[in-house]
């Protein structure tokens, strides 16, 4: 099943165009690759006069009301200068909604940013927390790569070992042909597994 995604403004433009051309709801859903109920609910925002602009405004308004946020421009992140400015605004007694409006962020983004620090917010401490988070992400990525390599290595060895058990006389080329593995992979593990499987018999 495809991962759920909210309708975009472009989706709504397409819905408007197809709806006004007389296309049925099931056909619109099929053309967009969306669930029938998603398109049905979308059209019922304005059943008598559906337009993409009105539907988008309605969706944004409901989202803002539900989560008490201002829609954040995509990709806009806090910089160190933003953090220095935020630190000063906190010292000046500005409220979270005021700071959210100033930075064009949702209130939750401001709260999360402030939670980077234990005690009073400090731009320097928050920036250090960001650097630590980046290091943790890099470490996690390196660990994931190492785990994947180790898993692949075990799989290569397992299959080469099985080949040698079936045919102890099989050489590197025989195993390459039998498995389809790259020759450098077979060469890397062949001697080790040959000693383990054949020589120890």
Please explain how this structure is put together.
The chain folds into three domains: 9-67; 80-121; 141-199. It is 70% helix and 0% strand. The chain is built from ten helices and no strands. It has helices spanning 9-20, 25-32, 36-43, 52-67, 80-91, 96-103, 107-114, 123-166, 172-179, 183-199.
What is the secondary structure topology, with strand pairs?
Layout: H1 9-20, H2 25-32, H3 36-43, H4 52-67, H5 80-91, H6 96-103, H7 107-114, H8 123-166, H9 172-179, H10 183-199
Helix pairs in contact: 1-4, 2-3, 5-8, 6-7, 8-10, 9-10
Give the SSE order as H and E letters. Answer: HHHHHHHHHH
Main beta sheet: strand number and arrangement? none
Mean pLDDT: 85
Distance between the termini: 50 Å
Give the overall form: flat
Individual helix count: 10
Radius of gyration: 29 Å
Annotation keywords:
201 residues; mainly alpha; 3 domains; 70% helix
Please outline what is shown here.
70% of the residues lie in helices and 0% in strands.
